Amino acid sequence: MFFIDASTVETITADFRSIAVAKGIGDLENDALDGLSKQRKEWLLLFNNADNTMLNLRDYFPRCSHGNILITSRNHDIHHHATGQRSHYKVSGMSESDARRLLLHIAGLGGEEHADETETARLASAIIKV
Predict the structure, then answer these.
(1) pLDDT digits over 34-77, tens only?
(2) pTM
(3) Where do the H-state alpha helices sit in the chain?
(4) What CA–CA distance (Å, rounded) separates 78 from 38?
């Protein structure tokens, strides 16, 4: 799981550079994007505070068919980055149990018995606090 402050281009770039350095794959934002694209394990990229509709977040999506991207925003108009009719949800005021069910549904896990309880609870808590 990687958190990106999506407030500005500068914060996005700095966070991707930090990911690249932490993973030992370089020191540029493209190094982090390439690293995520080549990684075979699943990952979650969380763009937080993506309120500026003028930023094209798709420029910062890894070019691959695996991995997961979650965007949080107070601006409903940011949903244009979502693909599909049920790809955006309002989570303000959501309980942890509702966030957990949504996370499992989106991840395609359906039944709660398939997920690591501790990790799912931690991620759900992070979603509603973001």
Answers:
(1) 999 998 888 888 899 999 999 999 999 998 888 888 888 888 78
(2) 0.72
(3) 9-23, 29-38, 96-106, 117-129
(4) 27
